[in-house]
């Protein structure tokens, strides 16, 4: 059952993201903005689906792209009050203590992934190193190998988070 949900999300992602990225590019946005907004929208989609509050009046692709567009426009305009589609509820802000606990859990999960993974993810996400640079720094054969290793590290972190108490709440 879980595999089917993941396959559904992966195919929805593959089907929807290129169209959204093209739309953002046509509107003078960047690929990074498109990724950030689309990932936010995907999380909203998943949370609503998990909670049983996903009532679609269009295709999942159209809904996801619509939410991603709203997320992108919100960041672009720095306006958290842009209208949302009918029936859409924005996630409620987390309590400060709950947020701190989640951040602590994330840090622990990153640390559990291992020193090399932690350094690789830091190099990519915080130092903004290119994959060929990361490959050289960490002794991989090339940029593709570094990309695969980064993906494996992210999966380690995801699995650790999924088994944590904070995730279960």
From TrEMBL:
Source organism, top-level taxon: Bacteria
MF annotations from Gene Ontology: DNA-binding transcription factor activity
Region annotated Disordered, chain positions: 83-102
Record-level GO BP terms: DNA-templated transcription initiation
Identification of the protein by name: Sigma-70 family RNA polymerase sigma factor
């Amino acid at each position: 059952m879980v595999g089917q949900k993941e396959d559904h999300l992966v195919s929805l992602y593959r089907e929807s993201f290129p169209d959204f990225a093209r739309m953002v590019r046509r509107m003078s946005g960047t690929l990074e903005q498109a990724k950030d907004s689309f990932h936010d929208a995907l999380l909203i989609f998943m949370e609503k689906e998990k909670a049983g509050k996903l009532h679609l009046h269009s295709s999942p692709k159209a809904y996801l792209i619509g939410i991603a567009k709203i997320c992108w426009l919100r960041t672009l305009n720095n306006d958290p009050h842009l209208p949302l589609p009918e029936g859409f509820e924005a996630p409620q802000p987390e309590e400060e203590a709950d947020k701190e606990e989640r951040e602590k859990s994330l840090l622990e999960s990153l640390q559990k992934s291992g020193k090399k993974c932690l350094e690789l993810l830091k190099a990519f996400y915080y130092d903004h190193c290119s994959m060929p640079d990361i490959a050289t720094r960490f002794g991989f054969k090339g940029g593709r190998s570094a990309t695969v290793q980064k993906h494996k590290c992210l999966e380690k972190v995801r699995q650790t988070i999924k088994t944590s108490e904070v995730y279960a709440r």
